[in-house]
Design a protein that fits this description.
There is one protein chain. The protein is built from eleven helices and ten strands. The protein is α/β, with parallel strands linked by helices and 330 residues long. Strand 4, helix 4 and strand 5 form a beta-alpha-beta unit. Helix 1 packs across helix 11.
């Protein structure tokens, strides 16, 4: 699956466990510097991708970033997310976009290509003014900005996961083909969640009969949202799914085959409904089968829930390589 090195050095910001990084690695890009502030994510990244990742506050260490050709960043989405408070640039994390701006200006030679990822709500936050501000800054820095909302289920993964991608090219570097970039075209979805479920599942992932009515309820008070289980295409994995929200937000499946393998107890009778395992979350996000689990289940749920879907990243990286080939053929 790996493509030979294409000569482009990449800096990865807010790397998490490397979902965005992996897609670019598969397409021949070389990650020369990566960063995340979460020690558990850094631990997983080091064990599975590369030890060349630096733990810490980006605002404190960004001046150590080496010169690079490509900057990729799945920058914090909570300031713009519908599940957060939607404070945008009023949120301390929202100002990390301005840290990205500083990094772009850090060296005399700006990165040729930027790839920024965030939640879809970024486009409509503050009536579109947040996105327009970002777009204006990037344009002033000399970039042509291409923006698109991409859904994981359109790129081989049975999960509804809509994310906005900004792919930006330095105008002076690509003046001859600057209008010719195209986002990857969707591909047919040939599998469903049930095709990815684990064959053997531990008892701890099954729901007790006591909690089942709460999980399956359609909401409370004046809020109504239909709860469904066994979906062919999963709801978006989230960083808080370890808390086991209702089935109108998280994913649950009936599994009689595994349920029948363990004994019930009078004190805590167990149903046949269960949540996804961390390993199933790995598969739904496109991470490789040899991924090493070096943190707790809770951290694994957070990490996979926060990650960029690897298959989406791969097709984005491939589309950039296709664009670069146009330049070579001019």
């Amino acid at each position: 699956m790996y493509t030979p090195f294409n000569g482009l050095k990449v800096v990865s910001l807010f790397s998490g466990i490397g979902g965005l990084d992996l897609g670019f690695i598969y397409e021949g890009f070389k990650i020369v510097w990566a960063n995340d502030f979460d020690k558990y994510s850094v631990k997983s990244y080091k064990e599975n991708i590369d030890r060349n990742i630096y733990e810490g506050d980006l605002n404190e260490i960004y001046k150590t970033i080496p010169e690079h050709d490509v900057l990729i960043a799945g920058f914090p989405c909570q300031p713009f997310s519908t599940m957060g408070k939607k404070l945008g640039f009023d949120d301390e994390r929202g100002t990390l976009f301005f840290t990205i701006e500083k990094i772009i200006k850090l060296h005399k030679k700006k990165p040729k290509i930027l790839v920024l990822e965030n939640v879809k709500n970024l486009l409509t936050h503050d009536n579109g003014r947040t996105y327009e501000k970002m777009n204006s800054i990037l344009t002033e820095l000399g970039y042509r900005v291409y923006t698109n909302v991409i859904d994981a289920k359109e790129y081989g993964l049975p999960q509804t996961r809509r994310r906005v991608f900004l792919v930006c090219f330095l105008e002076k570097e690509f003046s001859g083909i600057i209008n010719e970039y195209e986002f990857p075209k969707p591909i047919p979805l040939n599998n469903k969640v049930q095709d990815l479920l684990d064959e053997k599942v531990d008892k701890k992932y099954f729901l007790s009969y006591k909690i089942l009515p709460t999980i399956l309820s359609h909401g409370s008070g004046n809020y109504y949202s239909k709860s469904e289980i066994g979906l062919d295409i999963a709801r978006p994995l989230t960083s808080t799914m370890h808390k086991m929200h209702r089935a109108n937000q998280d994913n649950y499946y009936e599994d009689f085959q595994n349920r029948n393998l363990f004994q019930d107890t009078i004190e805590k009778p167990i149903s046949a409904v269960r949540r996804l395992t961390p390993n199933e979350c790995r598969k739904l996000q496109g991470f490789p089968s040899d991924w090493k689990y070096v943190v707790s289940d809770t951290q694994l749920y957070r990490q996979f829930g926060n990650a960029v879907a690897v298959d989406v990243s791969y097709y984005i990286a491939k589309s950039i390589n296709d664009f670069l080939r146009k330049e070579k053929n001019k």
